[in-house]
């Protein structure tokens, strides 16, 4: 890999040097031609003036006119070159902007402002676009208003896929998901995403301030609500950042640790008290101490909120009213934690195997 990297770095270096050379050469030519012409005009002009073929005034007028024209013509060259670069860049941006989104409002989709938070999965099947093998098959779930359902299962069994269907990050390919009895595809995407708060395992933070990241799509959020959400997520570290809530983070800003990013994502999910919460293993990168604090605060938030919670550790399972065990894209068992512990050996195995594994991104404060 180092060798390949070396080769490609060398290639990039050579291309850049080549470009520099070309630029230097062409700008030298740009400058040389008018100046050479000027020299010729001066020499030939002086000779003509001396022999009386032209007055001195005519020569001066000609030279000043020539000097006036050189600059605009030269810059025209640069403008054309820059315009070509800009057009290439714009092409790339338009490629993204022109991609038609595959998840759109159905005709006749309605705005829903209030919800009881009754979520049902009815014979839901799901296959990723462009693949053949279904990831989820015949999923039936009934999450009552205010209930917290934990989803447990081995890595790769489809937990993330399952919970990302509810905020419509993907659309089901079979069956349907309903919110208060209405197919979520008949709810306007805007209002659905307002009702469903979400935090995923590998959170995306954008290159903007902490505040903007937290209030994404909820511009009307007050500082008190932000404070409360940060407390739930134990993310008060943001107040210690150089510019507090206005610190820029993400690609072009301050980089945060995995645990810090996860806590910000969690704060973003709970801000504004969404009726339904989708949390995909939101505590996986936290140290045990912070995890316990977040769980305590989260328990209060989950009270009265319908939630789908992907969990790995037994301690987090305690937050849930019921647990569904997912195996190979199907619900293998569903019940309370203690019921499953007693009657389903696979559940015991899934939990204990996870409990022994140490997340690779443990961050201590
Ligand atoms: N974007 C995707 N495109 C195609 N296949 C995917 C995609 N994301 C996940 N998968 C596949 O779907 C299966 C379930 O993945 P996932 O839902 O992430 O599992 P879990 O969260 O339980 O670990 C895996 O086999 C994975 O390879
Ligand atoms: Mg996952």
From TrEMBL:
SUPFAM superfamilies: ABC transporter transmembrane region (SSF90123), P-loop containing nucleoside triphosphate hydrolases (SSF52540). Residues 1-85 form the ABC transmembrane type-1 domain. Residues 119-353 form the ABC transporter domain. GO terms for cellular component: plasma membrane. Its main location: membrane. It is found in: Cell membrane. Pfam families: ABC_membrane, ABC_tran. Keywords: ATP-binding, Cell membrane, Membrane, Nucleotide-binding, Transmembrane, Transmembrane helix, Transport. It is a multi-pass membrane protein. It comes from Phytohabitans flavus. The chain crosses the membrane at residues 32-53. This is ABC transporter ATP-binding protein. Gene3D superfamilies: ABC transporter type 1, transmembrane domain (1.20.1560.10), P-loop containing nucleotide triphosphate hydrolases (3.40.50.300). One of its GO terms (molecular function) is ATP binding. InterPro entries: AAA+_ATPase, ABC1_TM_dom, ABC1_TM_sf, ABC_transporter-like_ATP-bd, ABC_transporter-like_CS, P-loop_NTPase, Type_1_exporter.
């Amino acid at each position: 890999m180092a060798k390949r990297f070396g080769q490609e770095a060398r290639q990039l270096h050579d291309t850049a040097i080549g470009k520099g050379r070309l630029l230097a050469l062409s700008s030298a030519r740009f400058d040389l031609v008018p100046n050479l012409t000027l020299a010729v005009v001066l020499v030939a002009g002086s000779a003509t003036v001396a022999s009386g073929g032209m007055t001195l005034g005519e020569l001066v007028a000609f030279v000043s006119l020539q000097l006036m024209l050189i600059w605009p013509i030269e810059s025209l060259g640069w403008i054309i070159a820059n315009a070509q670069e800009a057009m290439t860049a714009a092409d790339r941006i338009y490629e993204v902007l022109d991609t038609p989104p595959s998840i759109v409002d159905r005709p006749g989709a309605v705005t829903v402002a209030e919800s009881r938070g009754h979520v049902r999965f009815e014979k839901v099947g799901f296959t990723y676009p462009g693949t053949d093998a279904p990831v989820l098959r015949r999923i039936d779930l009934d999450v009552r208003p205010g209930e917290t359902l934990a989803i447990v299962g081995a890595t790769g069994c489809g937990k993330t896929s399952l919970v990302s269907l509810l905020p419509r990050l993907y659309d089901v390919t079979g069956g349907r998901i309903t919110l208060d009895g209405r197919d979520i595809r008949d709810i306007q995407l805007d209002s659905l995403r307002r009702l469903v708060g979400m935090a995923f395992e590998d959170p995306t933070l954008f290159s903007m301030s902490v505040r903007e990241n937290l209030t994404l799509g909820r511009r009307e959020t007050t500082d008190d609500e932000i404070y409360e959400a940060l407390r739930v997520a134990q993310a008060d570290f943001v107040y210690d950042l150089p510019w507090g809530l206005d610190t820029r983070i993400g690609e072009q800003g301050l980089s945060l640790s995995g645990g810090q990013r996860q806590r910000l994502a969690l704060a973003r999910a709970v801000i504004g008290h969404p009726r339904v919460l989708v949390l995909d293993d939101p505590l996986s990168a936290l140290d045990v101490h912070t995890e316990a604090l977040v769980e305590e605060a989260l328990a209060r938030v989950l009270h009265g909120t319908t939630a789908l919670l992907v969990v790995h550790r037994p301690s987090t399972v305690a937050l849930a009213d019921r647990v569904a065990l997912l195996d190979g894209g199907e619900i293998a068992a569903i019940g309370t934690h203690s019921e499953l512990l007693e009657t389903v050996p696979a559940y015991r195995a899934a939990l204990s195997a996870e409990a022994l594994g140490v997340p690779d991104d443990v961050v201590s404060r």
